[in-house]
Amino acid sequence: MGNIGKLPQMTSALEAMFISVVFLFFSVSSARAQEEEKKVIVNGTAQVFGKNIEGARNNAVKDALRQAVEQGVGTLMDADSILQDDLLMEKIYTSTQGYITGYKIIKERKEQNGLYRVKIRAGVRPGILVDTLIKLGLYKGMMDYPRILVICSPDAQATDAANAAESVLLKTLTNKHFDLVDPGISLKLHDDTKSLLNADTIKNAAAKLGLEHHAEIVLLYGVKATPAGFDGMMETASVTMRIKAIVTTTAQILFADEQSISGIGESTDLACLNGARRAAENIASPMINGIVSWWADYTANGLPYTIRLKTGKNADRMVFTFQDAVESIPRVVSLTERSSGGGITEMMVKYKGTCSEFKRAIFKRLAQDKRFTNLQTEGSNGRFLVLKVEG
User: Fold this and answer.
1) Residue 76: enclosing H or E segment and its boundaries?
2) Topology of domain 13-142, CATH
């Protein structure tokens, strides 16, 4: 009892497919193999038929493995309807390559009511489940992703090592299907943040900069790399990377981490680059999991849309009419005015639908109001809309 689990024998072709796919380690890429593994505790039950204890034990383990997948889906998204759809869950089970890496039975027993119960500790890789849900058209459609701005912190140096770390972050975020502010402007923004820092705190300055570039999260990172010497075979370097994920609407620090790595290379420069890349790789996975978890809670009642309405000055009644019209749109959960002045009103709207659906609904609602005959989209970038009413 309690020993490492041997995959139970299947009683159907479908079950065989599920387990073989879930445990197909060799199909996982080398990048996936490096992803952080988490441990989950799950229970499984099965009916004992006659004296077939071994068969019931195997079925209880299969049930527990299924519970591990369901637990992962439930953690990532508001998914009651998905969990209740047996055909869809079967599709998820058979598509989740490498999500469960192995398991160990930690408790098991046959009960007097004819059930066999097991408790297992399973190793899982959340990122693989995210990719599966995206490929099945579930995760992106239900949650969408926050737009992210990645910049070197104003109190850190934009060195080659920092650039190497940033490249790792950008590649990882892109592979995970995040929307990114143009990385080509990050160096300029690094200088802009320095000037903002003269009048504000780092997190407030970063939040302001993020809002200006239509980002919901700003990643501020810094890398310090110092040559450490020659170990007899290679040059070494001491590298420390720190990072903060800041929510632009609240200046809240969502995630903070620091990694210290000993880099190696044929030269001191290569050793510094090696350490920076490895530190970024270590930070990226838990950071993304933290962002995804926060985003799932934040968007449970609708995706956030930012509307910047340009009306000209002294147009309060027009703004109120616009807001009333938007609030009356089906699937709009809430509307909050952020700022108003100089003929520009900015508001955040929670809406359960896509950006294109939302824009169509706004124009349809206001089509009969003569004051909004000239309403037009001046700019649009994901969930950030700039609307203008020409006089």
Assistant:
1) helix 53-76
2) Dodecin subunit-like (3.30.1660)
